[in-house]
Predict the structure.
Amino acid sequence: MSRTRVLVLNSGSSSVKYQLLDMRDSSRLAVGLVERIGEQTSRLKHSCLTTGGTRELNGPIADHEAALKTVAEELAKDGLGLDSPELAAIGHRVVHGGMFFTEPTVIDDEVLAEIERLIPVAPLHNPANLTGIRTARALRPDLPQVAVFDTAFHTTMPESAARYAIDPKIADRHRIRRYGFHGTSHAYVSRQTARLLGKAPEEVNVIVLHLGNGASASAVRAGTCVDTSMGLTPLEGLVMGTRSGDLDPAVIFHLARVGGMSMDEIDTLLNKRSGLFGLCGDNDMREIRRRIDEGDEEAGLAFDIYIHRLKKYIGAYYAVLGRVDALAFTAGVGENAAPVREAAVAGLEGLGLAVDPERNAVRADGARLISPAGARVAVAVVPTDEELEIATQTYALVGNNS
């Protein structure tokens, strides 16, 4: 029996997202989410797409090991268990790969050790990713396990974009540089945008706006990333749901010296209590737009700040690329919030950017153009599929050898 299935695991600090795909046609066999791991109110929602059945389990799930064992049990109920001879590999999302990992990598003890060494620059993400990997390896020690890194797509940036203007010796000693994140999404969306235009990725320059609760922009020239908005950590760049994005670094000194805040308090402020949430108390764009429609000035200002930052990055990356063939919106906000797309390009007609109001208002599942017919620069909505990208990279690496 051929091994054509890949299980994709995305282990967060208190959650595990998973998908099982058949790489013969990239079809999904099962999808699910375990959330609130470690709490009494843990929940697992599992859907088998071959039968159309959905199950939900509620109750305490102690840790990631218990979560993954429960996932394995649910898959087994549908005849899709981890012991299936058709399972070729398990692909893991790993947020931070530093400069060491520039492509998907088969996991061994040395790879695990390097991911662990990167914890100081990804303290919220890499520990959870490691827990998922170790648990999966224990469940199937004979099966190839592959790490697909959020940062890998951005390792093509030139040093002029990746380096910060600080002492290089200090930067190198502490691994300080721009790494970027959401790389699987930026890679997938930039390729799909080229396909939408009927061209090869090598023929087009694309600005990708990944707009979700976390948000990032990238400049992609001929299929390779040349700049991105997130930096050493996912805090830099665009205004996000709860993260501040760009700010004067001296704000941190001021809060410590004058505000009397500890480093941990400042970290919490900038990562969890800033962005849209910090500005208006909501980080859901739908709720913000509802409040704006009701005349809420606080929500309106938060939206304006969000859009202002977007415009700055669009303009900056237009300058970096020199020629732009397409601007692509993706992720939860980018795919669903028509007012965000319209506002982001309003006033940029001189750059060839515009949206057609009727096209922009249409809600659809697939990739589509929302710019006017004959526009100099295509503006597109391109749904991201990070799980498919991880599965594709995983299978390309080990599928034929499994």
